Structures
1.
Amino acid sequence: MPRSQNKVASHRRRKRILARAKGYWGARSKVLTIAKHHLEKAEQHAYRDRRLKKREFRRLWITRINAASRIHGTTYSKLIDALNKKQVSINRKVLADLASHHPEAFAEVVKFATAK
């Protein structure tokens, strides 16, 4: 019985792995086994960081809102509480954008929320 080989499929598999590792430093982009290990690690980081990114952006938005609201004489927590009591549903991403790019509009939101 002749020996069975898998040259086409294995060559494609190696090419695909090394193509995805292109740009890595040294043997990480040249040697198949090392490239495989580093690709696996990169995929773990990518999976984890897709979730961390959401947390980090929320923290950034809260920091920006807090800084801008302190300029107007209130704090982040008091502003959010006042908005909730007035039943204004505006998310933190939009509030942070208003605070950094449209300070006049943010001032109006603060004035509306804190008005008695």
2.
Amino acid sequence: MARKPPLLPAEALRRVVRTARLDGGGILAVAGFFALASASIHDVNGAAVGLLVAAGGAMEFHGAGLLTIGARTGVRWLVSSQIFLLAVILLYVAWRLHGMDISPMRPLLTDEQRSVIAGAGFGIDEFLRLVYRATYGVFGAASLAYQGGLALYYWRRRAAIKAALVYED
């Protein structure tokens, strides 16, 4: 299979800006919505986490804007936003795992589910703790892959972006 030639710097810059605008704008909108929803029900912790995640999206969106006007510092904003988001998410996961509360999950189980769980040799609380840990573990791992992958994507395009911005000057 023949290798494709590398992208032209201008095309790499265009793709990075498009990706950052979509990702940053999406994160900003969704996290902002959930921060407001949490604040409306007086969930201070949820609102704080939502605002921190929204701040990461705003950082990414800002980085895209800097690149659009020709400022090379935009790449630093893009990479930093992903590292910031990853740190917020992993700290949130650790916080949730440390303060695990399965009591709201118990009433959600039907009698049929309870019998299947018991038939599998698990106690109800044991099973719910396992599901809780697995859910947050998968969330943390997926975030590591996604945010880490985006940070790497932005970082590896530094030279092409620099070339594209120098060419546009």
3.
Amino acid sequence: MIRVELPAHLRTLARVDGEVRLDVAGLVTQRSLLDALESRYPMLRGTIRDQSTGQRRPYVRFFACEQDLSHDPPDAPLPEAVATGSDPFLIVGAIAGG
């Protein structure tokens, strides 16, 4: 069971409290995790990644195991601790401005 932590605005949109738990078949990658998340919560499609290109949205970041995974290839395996559910996969809304 994969644990995913969403930012507050996406939790509100998905109507969930706290962590989301997902089953991901096969190799656990950013792509397979996000596919499972969007399948279970279709209202999140297009909010985390562009629907046509599959690219991560500019102001969204991914973290796990104290590492920034935002620029990792979408098909690279996620850390074992995420795949086993011992550490969560964090989806974070980045803040910009001056």
